[in-house]
Amino acid sequence: MKRSIWKFPLEITDYQSVNIPTYAEILSVQVKDDIPYIYAIVNPQEETETRHFEIFGTGNPFEVEENIKRVYIGTFFSHKDRFVWHLFERIN
Q1: What are the CA-CA distances from residue 72 to residues 33, 44, 53 (Å)?
Q2: Which of 6, 19, 46, 51 is the most exposed place for a label (fewest CB within 10 A)?
Q3: Within 13 Å and on the Cβ side, how many CA atoms surround 28?
Q4: What distance lies between CA 82 and its chain's CA centroid?
């Protein structure tokens, strides 16, 4: 079964959902032309599923909820490295 690495653009916002092929393995978050992207290993033949992500800025407060599980994906910079962001996948 052949796999590919695909990228998925993100907005810099607190919470968002992204449609990604089922069973995708997220590798990292990187910035290209000031747009953050999730990079993932995917099977292009798979149906898509909706996955949920949260972005927190360094120094910005956020709620820690006991019933919410978050998996850290990575840290990235924007606006000529003036802002630092931290991407988590939200798993319920």
Answers
A1: 23, 24, 10
A2: 19
A3: 5
A4: 20
- Domain span including residue 61: 4-91
| Confidence label for 23 from pLDDT (cuts 50, 70 and 90) | very high
Encoded tokens for 19: 């449609």
For 26-81, the pLDDT digits (tens) are 999 999 999 999 999 999 999 999 999 999 999 998 888 888 899 999 999 998 88
Structure tokens belonging to residue 5:
């690495």
Calculated CA dihedral for residues 18, 24, 27, 30, nearest 10 degrees: -30
CB-CB neighbours of 62 under 10 Å: 13
CA dist 55 and 63 (Å) reads 12
Q: Which two tokens stand for residue 87?
A: 């991407």
Location of structure tokens 């909706």: 50
Domain count, the chain: 1
Query: Three-state DSSP class for 46?
Result: coil
